[in-house]
């Protein structure tokens, strides 16, 4: 038996191996992304369930953290739909327009990004007023107005992203299935301004608030000493843990979402339609940004749980309930834990 290793057979075998490796790599990426999505959905659902099950956890800070969890759940769900391949030709008409505006381009992530940014900024400002200026109660967020504030945050976020939803549509005759069409120049200016609002202003406000809080807690020793009566070491420790939690949460968010803003700016700058080499680099960058965004949504519940004994206890209770295990220890621990501050997670 003889085997002819001519050039065509070698190239064919090489191409087949490359296709197999690319296919295997794609499968690994898809599995990894879906693991992140499932973990994130479960973890953030736990955050929502904690406030539903435990009335004593219903503080304004925790309501705002649940709002972040709701934004993360929305991001994960729409990203999951975005990853589902469309079989056959792209639909025309109203369905094609809907898919372009909400699924294919995953524009809904812009809404959740704005919601999270505004919520984290509000958390920083609220902590600033609670700790640095405790005597000024008129500016405080409370359980009576928190629902209106959260609804307002979502409405403002939707209004800010409305130009994107209106302009992006299914355009079968253009280079891209979904694009703003002849409004591309206007959308570039809009995206640049939106990214500036999303990063510069919130960052400055958050940095100022946490700088004053850290200064009062660690250097000036003015927090827990004015107008609140004597504070125990436990109360001071709880306040420090809460500040650390919110700072870590905010830092991780900016690290994850600033690259997303850069990717969006590059997208509207025409990077996707440039040379082959730049398109490949941009495609890889977008993939990395997608992983980073999803990881941020999935790791937030762990950020809450690590410094907070209350959240850890509540998580254990929920898991044991799901597994039909005895929860007496958790009920006892949660019941005995004294809420030493008006806003402790």
From TrEMBL:
SUPFAM superfamilies: Family A G protein-coupled receptor-like. GO terms for molecular function: G protein-coupled receptor activity. GO terms for cellular component: plasma membrane. Keywords: G-protein coupled receptor, Membrane, Receptor, Transducer, Transmembrane, Transmembrane helix. It is found in: Membrane. It is a multi-pass membrane protein. Residues 43-304 form the G-protein coupled receptors family 1 profile domain. The chain crosses the membrane at residues 27-51, 63-84, 104-125, 146-166, 189-211, 242-268. The keyword Membrane applies. Belongs to the G-protein coupled receptor 1 family. PANTHER family: LEUCOKININ RECEPTOR, LEUCOKININ RECEPTOR-RELATED. This is G-protein coupled receptors family 1 profile domain-containing protein. It comes from Pocillopora meandrina.
